Amino acid sequence: MRVILQPGAATAPAWQRCCCCAAVLGAAQAAWAQSPPSAPVTLPTVSVTAPAAAAATGYDARRTTTATKTETPLRDVPQAVTVVPRAVIEDQAMESLADVVRFVPGVTMGQGEGNRDQPVFRGIGSTGDFFVDGIRDDIPYYRDLYNIERVEVLKGPNAMIFGRGGSGGVLNRVTRQAQWDDIGEATLRLGSWKERRATADFGRALSDAAAFRVTGVYERSESYRDHFGLERYGVNPTLAWRAGDRTLVRLGYEHFKDERTADRGVPSFGGRPVAVDPSTFFGNPDLSNTSARVDALDAVVDHDFGNGLKLSNHARWAQYEKFYQNVFPGSVNAAGTMVSIAAYNHRTDRTNFFNQTDLRYRATTGSVTHELLFGVEIGRQTTDNVRNTGYFAGGSLSVPLSSPVTFAPVRFAPSATDADNRSTANVAALYVQDQIELSKQWQAIAGVRFDRFEVELDNHRDASRLSNTDHLVSPRVGLIYKPIEPVSIYASYTVAYQPRSGDQLGSLTAANRSLDPEEFRNVELGAKWDVSSRLSATAAVYRLERTNVAVTDPNDPTRSLLVDGQHAQGVEITLAGRLAPNWRVIGGYAYQDGEYDSTQSSAIRQGNRIAQLPRHSVSLWNRYDFDAKWGAGLGVVASSALFAGADNSVTLPGFARVDAAVYYELTPDLRMQLNVENLFDSEYYASAHSNNNIMPGSPRALRVSLSANY
Question: Taking the C-alpha atoms of 434, 438, 441 and 447 in order, what is their torsion angle to the nearest 10 degrees?
Answer without folding.
Answer: -20
